[in-house]
User: Fold this.
Amino acid sequence: MYKILKKRKLNPVTHLFVVHAPLVARRAEPGQFVILRVRPEGERIPLTICDYDRSEGTITIVAQEVGKTTRLLGRLEEGDSLVDFVGPLGKPAPLPDEGHVVAIGGGIGAAPVYPKVRAMHERGVRVTGIIGARTAELLILEEEMAAVCDRLFVATDDGTKGYHGFVTGVLERLLREEAEDIDEVLAVGPMVMMRAVADMTRPYGIRTMISVDPIMVDGTGMCGACRLTVGGKTRFACVDGPTFDAHEVDFEEAIRRSRMYVEEQQLALHTCSCGGDEGCR
Assistant:
C-alpha cells in the first residue's frame, strides 16, 4: 500500500498528492509517469510525476477530476493509501543543458511541465514559462512555476488574470518578437493545444517537444492501447515516450483515438454520482 502523506487542493477539481513510494522516487526523472489504482476492483490510470524527493522517498502527483477513477482519487485524504503505484514508467524527457526554452503548461499540463522546468533551471537553462486555464480560479502551480522560470506569463480564456486568451496567444507574440532567441519550445496540455503549438513553431524551425497522454492500459508496451504515429511510424507512448517531437506526431489520429471512449467514461462517471462511497460500482 502507498500512503498519502500530503494532500493539497489546487482548485475545485484538482488535487496534489504526495505519496510515499521510495522505490519509485529512487529512479524517477522529469517526464516519467506512474500507473496507480485507487482500490482493488478499480481501473489503472496513468499520471505524470509532478515532483519527487529521493531523500524522503516521495512522489508528487496532480490529478484533475475528469472521470470516475480521478473522482475517487479526489475523495482520498492524508493517511489513506493507494492499492498500486507502479513506476517510474516511460522515458525521461530529453532536456537541454543550455539555451532558451519556452515551456508551456495548458490547464493540468502545468503539473507535468513543472519538473522539466525545474530540472532545466537547475542546469542553468533560461526558461520562459507560460501557463494557462479557462479562468483564474483554475490556474495551478503558479508560484512553483514562477520560482523556477526566468519569467512567467499567465493566460486565462476569460481574461480574469494575465493575458486574455489562450497560451498560444502568448506564444505567438513571443515568436513574433523573439523567435531568433528561442532554441526550443516544450508544451504539455490538451492535444488540440499541443497541435496548435506545433503548427505555430513549425514555420520557424524551432525544435518543439510535447508530452502525450493517450489511452493507456498496462503502461509497459504490451497492450498497444497507447499507440500513435510519430514520423510515419507506430510508437507506444508508454515505452517510446511520453515525450515526442511535436512536428512528427500525427495529431489527427491521436485526437481521434483519445475520444474513442468518451461515452463509456461519461457512463462510468454517472454511476459514481454517489461521491465514491462503497455503493459506487
